[in-house]
Specification:
It contains 11 helices and no strands. By secondary structure, it is mainly alpha-helical. It folds into 2 domains: 51 residues, no CATH class; 142 residues, no CATH class. 24% of the residues are buried. It is elongated. This is Potassium uptake protein, Trk family. Pfam families: CitMHS. Its main location: membrane. It is found in: Membrane.
Length: 200
């Protein structure tokens, strides 16, 4: 059974890697792998059912529509526009990068990271160009911050997947995630302007 389980795992991973060429989605590959595990006797139907983390599933089911609603309703853009409006007419380029980083990092804890970056990128470009600065630094700030989804269990799928098995609480993510976000912010604000100068 151990060897069969290992072969099933390898088969699922290979199928996922070549999903586009095979025309099989990631979810389909995973479900087929689970079915094969049951059919080959590696686990029983009851074990398969008991292994489902219902907390994770309901968390996904509940938060994904909220994230989509923030994006589609314009609430995310409203938040971004409001914060940008507080900066005034001629802020410092580093201040813009810092504010856009913080805004992107906060929004990505509740929204999809791709949607967050797509929402803030045009704002960052227009603000940087309005003062004659190269927008690359601002865009990199937004991109890095949108990927630094550490502070909530719904920020990114890996965070959600370990919530149940690890028996973590929402506060556990805050305790570890917020310091990581702060470290990422400080390092980014030092390194980004050096690698991508505002006025090359």
């Amino acid at each position: 059974k151990q060897m069969i389980s290992l072969l099933i795992l390898i088969g699922v991973v290979v199928t996922m890697v070549f999903s586009k060429q095979l025309g099989v989605s990631l979810t389909t590959a995973a479900v087929i792998g689970a079915l094969v595990a049951v059919l080959t006797g590696c686990m029983t139907e009851k074990q398969a059912y008991a292994s489902i983390d219902w907390v994770t599933i309901f968390l996904f089911a509940g938060m994904m529509p909220i994230a989509t609603a923030l994006d589609k309703s314009g609430a995310g853009k409203l938040i971004a526009d409001t914060v940008v409006g507080w900066l005034g007419d001629s802020p410092n380029p580093l201040v813009i990068a810092a504010v856009m980083y913080l805004l992107s990092n906060i929004m990505t804890q509740f929204m999809n990271n791709t949607a967050t970056a797509a929402l803030l990128a045009p704002l960052g470009i227009s603000m940087a160009q309005s003062m004659g600065a190269d927008p690359k630094a601002v865009l990199v700030s937004i991109a890095i911050a949108a990927s630094a989804a550490f502070a909530t269990p719904v920020a990114t799928p890996p965070n959600t997947l370990v919530l149940g098995p690890g028996q973590y609480s929402f506060n556990d993510y805050l305790k570890v995630g917020i310091p990581l976000c702060i470290v990422g912010f400080v390092v980014s604000m030092i390194v980004i302007p050096i690698v991508w100068p505002f006025f090359p």
